[in-house]
Amino acid sequence: MSKVTDFVERVKTDSDARILFAGILFFTIAFPVAFANAAAGVEDVGLNAVGDYVVNGEVETILLENGGEYIQDGDEWPVSQTSDAVRNEIQTAGGNVVGIRISMTYDEDETSSGPTCFAASGSDAPDTITATLEHNGMTETGSGENPGSHTVELTWVNLSLLDSEVISGMSGANISDQLTAGSDGLGAYDIVIGVTAAAGNAPGACSRSDNGEDVSWTIELLVLDFTVAPYLEVDATL
Ligand SMILES: [Ca+2]
Ligand SMILES: [Ca+2]
Fold first, then answer.
1. Which residue in 26, 110, 124, 166 has the most C-beta neighbors within 10 A?
2. Ligand having the closest approach to the CA of 208
3. From the CA of 200, which ligand is nearest?
4. What is the 3-state secondary structure (H, E, C) of the chain?
5. 185 CA to middle of ligand 2, Å?
6. pLDDT tens digit string along 14-55?
């Protein structure tokens, strides 16, 4: 009698053998089903569960324009840019355009004239340099005074999520949604740079004038490449 036939015979007659057989049958069927469910859960439920998550991400910049212009007092200098102009660079950086930034630098160019200027020519009054960024109906404006520099950023995802080491009380999918711009990040970007000049005072027969300001700028797109993963607390004592 073979061992299999022997076992079958014992299952028919021996209750211990029946329990063993049922056990083998249960684990043979149940384990693959349980593991398959667990594996599917990682994909389906993984980021959908509300819990603790870690975001790893970095904002890269893509240059749109290095420019400069003498802008007359009261004038505005418009700059139009599109994502199409840097399509390949955007793709290489991961495709998730989350904002636009302009950095400006400017000096002061006041002049003084009059017979007493050699003795006392007064001092500069600061000009106001303003930049406004517009994309998809969203705008951001920021001003600075010369001489100096300032930066204006318009962003359209929740970048504050990158500040937390561990994000709690949200699902991973929600975090991912809040950091993904999709096609909303692409399209046209309108930038306007303006100058309001002011001339300082000088005593006696000396007067100061200020026609505007020479402004230099760098305009960049902000691209965020990121991953979201469940936060796993590692026990340092292990
Ligand atoms: Ca001035
Ligand atoms: Ca000026």
1. 110
2. 1
3. 1
4. CCHHHHHHHHHHHCHHHHHHHHHHHHHHHHHHHHHHHHHHHHHHCCCCCEEEEEEEEEEEEEEEEEEEEEEECCCEEEEEEEHHHHHHHHHHCCCCEEEEEEEEEECCCCEEECCCCCCCCCCCCCCEEEEEEEECCEEEEEEEECCEEEEEEEECCCHHHHHCCCEEEEEHHHHHHHHCCHHHHCCEEEEEEEEECCCCCCCCCCEEECCEEEEEEEEEEEEEEEEEEECCCCCCCC
5. 35
6. 777 666 656 555 555 555 555 444 444 444 457 999 999 999
